[in-house]
Model the fold of this input.
Amino acid sequence: MASSNDLVLLNFWASPFGERVKIALAEKGVHYDYKEENLADKSPLLLQMNPVHKKVPVLIHHDKPIFESNIIVQYIDETWQNEDPPLLPSDPYLKAQARFWADYVDNNVRFSAIWRTKGEEQERAKKEFIDLLKVLEEQLGEKPYLIGESFGYADIALIPLSCRFYALEIIGKMNIEKECPKLMEWVKRCMERESVSKSLPDPHKIYEYVLERMKKLGN
Done:
């Protein structure tokens, strides 16, 4: 088990990518030091540890940095493989499926267009977002989690986005639960896990943060 001096997470509280890392560490029961970053004035440590992208999250393990949230989650699973639960399935096919759906979330699920646009453009962005959620709902099917019976890698990739739904519903005048009831049941199921509920910020706080960003953008 790593001591907090061995492991440091550089993050920004509203980063859904950082939330993935927090959930993975909580699932494994790994203790770490947390350092909050000001993205408008990035710390020398962040710039030193992630000189390529200069982004959070960064996990520093024994003074060695690991970046990109899904890669960090895989690193956590492999480094603490003796700690239950496993985050990736042992079956190669299911492991490939988990990686595919995590990648799908990263490459496709975007919601900033909903609060950055108005009128017909916003309506189009809302429809595209719901259509993407319905694809994920179809993958979920009747399973409790995205890849099967166990909460894991693909779920960790998606669940941080759920605390943005409140802001989306108010700003975009949407009803995600009406459109994707099974997916929202999955959200509630995930939120019953302490690793998730304690790692995600309050949706109301996210809503206030989004409003501040909209004002800065002149929306």
Remarks:
- The longest strand covers residues 7-11.
- Residues 92-217 form a domain with the Glutathione S-transferase Yfyf (Class Pi); Chain A, domain 2 fold (CATH 1.20.1050.10).
- The chain has a mean pLDDT of 94.
